[in-house]
Write a structure and sequence with these properties.
The protein is α/β, with parallel strands linked by helices. The chain is 31% helix and 26% strand. The chain has nine helices and 13 strands. It is globular, with a radius of gyration of 24 Å. The two termini are 35 Å apart.
Length: 309
């Protein structure tokens, strides 16, 4: 985790956004975000996660200044995010789909985005930074999906902005390219750049984010560090039963693919009980494994809540 400050970069207070139907629409109004409260500090990497339809994209669009909230207050870099003169030049945005111009070369695309950003930088240095030097004269139409994402990333980090929005940044990237992208993010964070990330790769959020916000049904359902979110979660113990399941000395949650499954919040005590019992009876606990709950388990629980609702 990088060092952050107490300076607020993003602040949303009781923000809601409702989509209003057009004149010819038969659909009613739909509230995508309801009563959202969110604070992101300078130098922080904040991951905003949620199930499909949770309101993440709408939230990002409001924070980026692309939509005006129906109610509530948003401040980004101590200003209105839609302020094109004072706030927009200080932020970089990597959208899920950027709409690159197919006829332009990689170098032309990045140079154009840099000119529009209002931030100074050198196009060849940016291309080198994101590993696109060898592709700089290639037209966008000839790029792979992963290469286009790297162009999007280059455009977002041009001029080392104070705040960068990363919307699914590693989609289509191979493992080496993902590592390279995160290395650039880490480098920018050493100079104080703040990042707001959305991703479906939960392991990336778990590894890189200082804090995680979990959206559910348009609200910020839970928020905190990964340790906060996974505290008191259930840990799973699995092994091949060496005897009748009823003879196992602690309660069994079920069986799965020939394995006993035990879900517990007292894992150390239960592991000690199991190993002592196995030693006493000369049992081998084949394929014995302990899975500590992570962010993926918390996320699945959130999806289950949505299904139940």
């Amino acid at each position: 985790m990088r060092e952050t400050t107490h300076e607020t970069v993003i602040e949303a207070r009781d923000v809601s956004f409702t989509y209003r139907p057009g004149r010819r629409s038969t659909k009613g109004a739909y509230t995508a975000v309801q009563g959202l409260g969110l604070t992101v500090r300078r130098g922080e990497l904040y991951a905003l996660l949620g199930t499909n339809g949770a309101g993440k994209t709408t939230t990002l669009e409001v924070l980026e200044g692309h939509r005006v909230p129906s109610s509530g207050r948003v401040r980004v870099l101590d200003g209105d995010p839609s302020d094109r003169r004072h706030v927009r030049p200080r932020m970089g945005i990597m959208l899920q789909e950027s709409g690159l111009v197919a006829e332009l070369t990689v170098r032309e695309s990045v140079a154009l985005a840099g000119a529009v950003s209002g931030r100074p930088d050198a196009v060849d240095a940016v291309l080198d930074r994101v590993g696109l030097t060898a592709k700089k004269q290639t037209r966008v139409a000839q790029l792979s999906g992963g290469e286009k994402r790297r162009v999007d990333f280059a455009m977002a980090v041009w001029g080392s902005p104070e705040l960068v929005f990363l919307d699914e940044p590693t989609t289509g990237l191979d493992p080496a390219s993902r590592d390279a992208l995160w290395a650039v993010v880490d480098d920018l964070r050493t100079s104080g750049t703040t990042f707001l990330l959305t991703t479906h790769y939960l392991e990336e959020a778990e590894h890189h984010a200082d804090r995680v916000g979990l959206m559910h049904a348009g609200t910020l359902h839970r928020e905190g560090t990964v340790s906060d979110l996974t505290a008191n979660s259930v840990t799973t113990i699995r092994f091949v039963p060496p005897c009748a399941v009823d003879d196992i000395p602690i309660p069994v949650s079920g069986t799965e693919n020939g394995l006993v499954v035990i879900r517990t919040r007292t894992v150390q005590r239960d592991v000690r009980t199991l190993t002592a019992w196995a030693d006493a009876h000369d049992y081998e606990l084949a394929r014995f494994a302990v899975h500590e709950s992570g962010l993926d388990d918390v996320f699945r629980a959130l999806g289950s809540e949505r299904t139940t609702a």
